[in-house]
Amino acid sequence: MLELEPFDDVVTGIKTATAQGGKAIMWAYSYRVDNVFFDAGCANAKEELRPHIKGIERLLVTHSHEDHVGGGSVFGRDIPILAPDLTIPVLKSPPNLNEFFQYVWGQPEPIEDVELMPSQFSVGDLDFEVIPLPGHSQDMVGFYEVHNRWFFSADGVPLPSKKRLAMDDENVPQAIATMERILELDVDVLFDFHRGPIRDPQQHIQTRIDFLKGVQNQVLELHQEGKTIEEIQSILNFEPPWYMDLTEGRFGIDYLIRSLIFDQP
Hints:
The chain is of the alpha+beta class. Helices cover 28% and strands 24% of the residues. It has a 7-stranded mixed beta sheet with strand order 1-2-5-6-7-8-9. The longest helix has 23 residues, at 202-224.
């Protein structure tokens, strides 16, 4: 399914999702900025996306996760697709998703022609800086528009205010440091890729930093006492969501705890 969410006369949010019982399982936002797309949404909505790419001159991809690149194959060879260096091989040869993620988002198709994203670009009168956002994904970038103080943050700021699980390759201390760097920017509007535009986002971001730092302090203290990761999870009373087993090891509470102990920002 697909819904449009206009922000102003230049920016429109393009929300894609898989429908279940007539409702979105989870929205993924792309943004149309004049004649450019930021991300391509999920593969299960790619045919609904196709009519909305008329007149588009470029697609810029923030990172390689399937909810951000799944619709990329409908752009074809006539529309340049630009991505960060580490994202390009994943777009060309996407991993095979398990049944759960194919149901939630859909399986991305390979995209053969991908160009390296520059460190700066313009869209009409808008001037963007490409900002690295490692942590959630090592290849992730965001786009900062300096005149309007807009920041298109990809997944740089977690959707839940209390993040209790992580992906197997996620560096959570690095994700915290990334959020702190976002706070250092002069941002009036944060364009989140699962929540939509957030005005004056500083408290929204700080809440997530504070929670994760609090968890990290607890985890490190328990680790120094000799507690195992399983014991730490039990003490924190972090319960897995209903779908955890369906991810087949891609997400885990233990990944969050392990990353907070051993990863460096």
